[in-house]
Amino acid sequence: MTQSTRVKICGLSTPDTLSAAADAGAAYVGFVFFEKSPRNVGYEQARALAIDVPMGVAKVALTVNATDTELDQLTAHVPLDMLQLHGSESPERVAEVRQKYGLPVMKAVGISAADDLENIQTYSEVADQILVDAKPPKGGDLPGGNGLAFDWRLISDLRWTKPWMLAGGLTPSNAAQAVNLTGARQLDVSSGVESSPGVKDSDLIRAFIQAAG
Predict the structure, then answer these.
(1) SS3 label, residue 190
(2) Fewer Cβ close by (within 10 Å): the C or N end of the chain?
(3) Domain range spanning residue 120?
(4) How many C-beta atoms surround the C-beta of residue 41 within 10 A?
(5) Tally of structural domains, the chain
């Protein structure tokens, strides 16, 4: 059966959970390169995982305000299909990274109120995809993976010119509702398929992809 909603399982760090995601029909697998995150992986660890990803499943690297030096090392070590910029990168920086590294770029945009929505359009002009995520709590260490959702009704009637992915507080129990309410054709999940912070659960991964439809 073809998976109609494209799912990204982010923050993978073990061969078993990577296989579970790919076998269940994930369209993307994500590796986190951010030291403060419990999902952080090193370049060699990520390389070993990435080379086992089946053809047709996109390998995405999540970075946060990464420097050129860091991106140079990352792209030299790990075979990737996409860079995900999940920090406070400006539109100019997004365009620069996209041009320099020759990879599609997904930019995360945090949403908590209607005022934040115009940022989606701004970044749509320079990124290949947009990750529409919940804004992190004030003073929090993590820009994503916090298990928080925003009010999905804010985007229920909106459409953008670039492909976009919904993230933030998604779980196997609310994935179908999220798709129905927002019209999202792509979902991104991290903490919602974990048994504890940073520890992915293969059963939850399978349940999420099935629930997404």
Answers:
(1) coil
(2) N
(3) 6-212
(4) 23
(5) 1
CATH value at residue 45? 3.20.20.70
Is 167 within the bounds of a domain? yes
Asked, for residue 1, whether it belongs to a domain, the answer is: no
Distances (CA, A) of 118 to 76, 87, 124, 130, 167: 34, 17, 10, 12, 17
Is 26 in contact with 209 (CB distance < 8 Å)? yes
3-class secondary structure, 188: strand
* Catalytic site includes residue 10: yes
What is the per-residue pLDDT across 40-75, written as a single tens digit (0 to 9) for each?
A: 999 999 999 999 999 999 999 999 999 999 999 999
Residue 50 is assigned to a structural domain of this protein: yes
Which of 10, 23, 141, 201 is flagged as catalytic? 10
Residue 118 lies in a domain: yes
Give 97-150 pLDDT, tens digit per residue.
Answer: 999 999 999 999 999 999 999 999 999 999 999 999 998 766 556 565 556 788
| pTM reported for the whole predicted model | 0.93
Catalytic residue among 115, 116, 133, 188: 133
The 10s digit of each residue's pLDDT in 187-207 is 999 999 999 999 999 999 999
